[in-house]
Each structure stands twice: as structure tokens, then as C-alpha cells.
Amino acid sequence: MDYICKVDASLRHHCKKMEEENKNIQSSPSSPKPVISFRGADIPSGESIVIYGLDMDVMKGDFVYIVGRVGTGKTSIVRTMIAENPLSKGHGEVCGFTLENIRPKDIPYLRRKVGVVFQDFQLLTDRTVEKNLEFVLRATGWKDKAAMSERIDKVLADVGMQNKKHKMPHQLSGGEQQRVAVARALLNAPEVIIADEPTGNLDNETADGIMRLLTSINAEGTALVMVTHHRDIFEKYHGRVFMCKDEHCTEQDDDDAIDLSLII
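^ that's the sequence the OP posted. Answer follows.
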């Protein structure tokens, strides 16, 4: 009888401990969700697959490089992130949108949460800086003129271009045009900025200025994913590194010696 009582008491103690552990698990905050996530994703370029089985998580505030030689799939990954390339195999999620079954009508809403900076700026040459930014705001649903003007002034001030809003793109230097492109990417307060070779057309000094701007934005909590061939930038501004090579893109460990000849 004493033995049975002891077993019963032990069982009650075990159950109570399990209940307390379950409460702790339930009351603890959930793990942060990635702003970009891929699992076993095949990345297309046209009719071909250029990257097989991509696994990647980008968290809030991360600074991630995608590097590799020309033709290894870096830009195709970027295009897949913004739903320009379809994802037919594996899983991808960007800012809460599932890529493999995203509806065409949802793609503009995805792109409002992602700021994209291109190598060639892609400013509209027939209108001023201000009108370039206003065009983007209108295209993403803004209607209040006062609110649009205030937002444009804010992002231009953030990139040091507040005195250039009435200039035409051809009146700006390459570095100034890229600063406007960064301002455009910031308009809708994105969760992540994706920069595809943002310094590719710039001299070293100007490129360094753009990098200081992007890293300052990243330091405030905006995730940054950047494709680059620029060795000086890669060495100076440290971040997580995904290397595209032999139809795969894998993260390099901190201890890995990265062969810089593979990124140029």
C-alpha cells in the first residue's frame, strides 16, 4: 500500500511539472518570423532552373549578401523574391506572402512591403525627382496629396537629397540618382530592401557613400539583401554571405575562407 501511495505521489508530481512546463511554453513569446524564407526552392531563369534546393532565412535587421560569378543565379533569386519569377518547386515566403501559390492580384501588395534598388537606377527620365516618387506612391494606393508630399520630403531628407526634388534625373550624378532610388525604396517603409548590384555603375568613393547609407538604414532594423560583385564593399561591410556556385546557393560559415575570386 505504501508503495502504491509513493508511485501515485510521484505521478502527481510529474504531471504537475509537465503542466508548469506547458504553461511556460505557451506563455513564452513565439520565435521571430523570417521576412524572407526559402525551403528546398528551385529558382528559375526563363525555362531553366539555375539554383536547386535553396534554403534561406532572412530575419528582421539581417544584412545578407548574395554573391557569385555572372550567370550563377543571383539576380534570379532576387526576381523570385519579388514574384517576378514563378516558384514552382519548394517553398518561399516573403513578408507573409507565399510565393509558390501567390495570386497575381496579390503581387503588388507584396511589392509594397519590399523596397528594391537596381543597378541602373530605373528612374523615369521624363519627370522630376519629386514626380518620380509621387508616381510610386500613387501606384501603391496613396491618394492624399499632403500626405504624399510629407512622405516624399521625409525619404529625400533621409538620403540627403531634400534639395534635389525639383531636379530632372539627367541633372543628377550617378550617386545622386542612386540615392533617389534608395529613397524610392523607402517610400512604403519596407520590411526588407533588396539591392541588386546597387553600386555596380558607381566609382569607389560614390559606392562607399551608398553603402554607408544602406548600412545605416539596416542598422535601424530594416533587413537588407544585397547582390554584389564589388570586392572592396564585400570586405569592408560585413554580413551573412550566400555563395552561388554550381547550381546551388549556400550560406558560408563565419569560419569559412571565402574565395573572393568566385564573386567577380
